[in-house]
Prior knowledge:
Layout: E1 7-15, E2 19-27, E3 33-41, E4 44-49, E5 55-63, E6 68-72, E7 75-77, H1 85-97, E8 99-111, E9 120-131, E10 146-151, H2 152-160, H3 167-196
Parallel strand pairs: 4-9
Antiparallel strand pairs: 1-2, 2-3, 4-7, 5-6, 5-10, 8-9
Helix pairs in contact: 2-3
Amino acid sequence: PQEGWPVAGTAEHFRNWLISVRTDKVVMPDSHQVERTVITHMGAVAILALDEQDRVLMIRQYRHPVARQLWEIPAGLRDVAGEGLADTARRELLEETGHVASDWHVLLDSYSSPGIITERMRVFLARGLQPADSGYQRHGEEKFLETAWVPLADAVAGALAGKLHNGATVQGVLAGYVASLDRRSEEHTSELQSHHD
């Protein structure tokens, strides 16, 4: 079956630097048409930054649409033309936490809310963390961020208890936990093999 359904017409209602809002007339396989409102978005990245003790570097920031301060993993928009996703993640980690990382892996890709918005999110795993140069200063909204090191198991428990509310954070924490289990399993297997050699 075809992936995308044809669009018979579209009307844009709003556009600014971040999003646009439009209504599409979508032609279903039986030729009937339905209206779908679409918010376009440039996309974003998020970073699950783990230290040697498997603690997550988290930030607490104000989210105006929900009027709450939320604990999250660092994240940011793909708002620099021509910048690769990994470079965006490195920049956001530095801007929001003042840290750099030497080891980067892709954890997962997802759509934030595919029923309404085009936003795609790539979550990276960053290890080999260290503070940036001592003179680094956070700017703009970032200077109001609070940071904390949270054991990964506690972050998982918080996600499952409904205490973490940001989708990328919940996904990143859970995927990071699964990846850490896989890593421990591989390390255990290699230890067993070395004892048998």
